[in-house]
Prior knowledge:
CATH topology: TIM Barrel
Distance between the termini: 26 Å
Oligomer: single chain
Radius of gyration: 19 Å
Number of strands: 12
CATH architecture: Alpha-Beta Barrel
Structural class: alpha/beta
Shape: globular
Largest sheet: 12 strands, mixed
CATH superfamily: Aldolase class I
CATH class: Alpha Beta
Order of helices and strands: EHEHEHEHEHEHHEEHEHEEE
Number of helices: 9
Bound molecules: iron/sulfur cluster
Amino acid sequence: xxxxxxxxxxxxxxxxxxxxxxxxxxxxxxxxxxxxxxxxxxxxxxxxxxxxxxxxxxxxxxxxxxxxxxxxxxxxxxxxxxxxxxxxxxxxxxxxxxxxxxxxxxxxxxxxxxxxxxxxxxxxxxxxxxxxxxxxxxxxxxxxxxxxxxxxxxxxxxxxxxxxxxxxxxxxxxxxxxxxxxxxxxxxxxxxxxxxxxxxxxxxxxxxxxxxxxxxxxxxxxxxxxxxxxxxxxxxxxxxxxxxxxxxxxxxxxxxxxxxxxxxxxxxxxxxxxxxxxxxxxxxxxxxxxxxxxxxxxxxxxxxxxxxxxxxxxxxxxxxxxxxxxxxxx
Length: 330
Ligand code: SF4
């Protein structure tokens, strides 16, 4: 029987799918019996893509790439989601625990610096089992939780033995913005409580190559026309997390034509607002972190129907929902 390393202390009793209370929506959906809640997912892991990704923050990538695994469905479903094909339109394929573990090991064999779980809250039980199976079979990489920040503190505790690095996106501290864009007015208090729990459990720690082994990177996607929101989020970071976590400020907001009927900013960030943002970052003195340059155009938006949804410089596919494994597993 495999033993847990000191880096992975015992977790509370693993959560289940029924009645489903995995996320703050608390749907109570009977997912073992075929019912679905807000996220629209059943009781089996459903994935769209596993790939080496070179566009994440530098200590997650190095020269090896981050081993991203994109899950289907989402508990937040933002009106501006660049991954809407998988988060809201259901693209993906179900996999069992053994196939999920094989995908993790294929990413490790391909050279990944870590396993980067993108939007996995709706599958917490399957992920805990899948990562345990992968570790038992030889997975030795740090595991990242790359999500919306809309998590229950109870689930952060349940994932403590599974996750090494947290990558939440604190989107807003304004209840009205959260209600309008993702029907979750409780988002500000829920997300900040979860993020503080993540930072409490995982102080920053790097390996000899400068890759992040444990810790929190707090992302913030700047919403055009709402710089006051960004000021509130970054001020919160400076008061609660500066020195304990790394900020990552993203300027890549792009209106999504397929979601045009939903409330969301209609334009990308402009040069003048970007300059105001840079001045705000200087004013707040956030310290070491990552600050994206202005990204013009929408050519980089992923298309998960393609074998490689991203540009070839940005990602290399290892497994795809339509074709299975596409890279050598060694
Ligand atoms: S994971 Fe899905 S079904 Fe479960 S509470 Fe959240 S939205 Fe509802």
